[in-house]
Write a structure and sequence with these properties.
148 residues, alpha+beta, Tetracycline Repressor, domain 2, 6 helices, 6 strands, globular
Length: 148
């Protein structure tokens, strides 16, 4: 499958804030659907998955309420004081992403009705950048399978 925005929504769904589908944009870690006030996690409530992602590495309480874009900007240039094994990080992210999908009626319906495979890539000018987030796509695939 070729990763390119012109195929987004035709051969795949890109989980990206600038994706071509509503589902892909809502699955981005930056965005929380309007029908979901907060993301519940084992560590409390967060405004976005992005904020939780960075909180796991920084444990700064401001990350709980920041928008996804603000959380991304806040962490830029800061060293991660907390490191954890990937398997532990993965489990926390899986719980948070599953919560986001299953507690948003809009996202749950869009995901359940979808059939295309998920990808995650960014576009910068004419370049397509694959950040190597297949594991995020697999979480979403697994949640979709459980909804069916």
């Amino acid at each position: 499958m070729e990763l390119h925005p012109r195929y987004d929504g035709k051969t795949h769904i890109n989980m990206y804030t600038r994706g071509q589908t509503d589902l892909g944009r809502l699955l981005s870690n930056i965005i929380t659907p309007d029908d979901l006030p907060v993301i519940e996690t084992p560590h409390g409530k967060f405004a976005t998955i992005e904020g939780y992602w960075h909180w796991l590495g920084h444990r700064d309480e401001r990350l709980r309420t920041l928008s996804g874009w603000d959380a991304k900007a806040w962490v830029r240039g800061r060293k991660r004081p907390y490191n954890m094994p990937f398997s532990e990080f993965y489990d926390f992210m899986k719980q948070a992403i599953t919560y986001k999908i299953t507690h948003s009626p809009t996202l749950r319906t869009l995901l359940k009705d979808s059939t295309l495979p998920f990808t995650n890539y960014y576009v910068s000018g004419n370049r397509v950048i694959d950040p190597g987030a297949d594991w995020l796509c697999q979480i979403v695939e697994d949640v979709r399978d459980s909804l069916r």
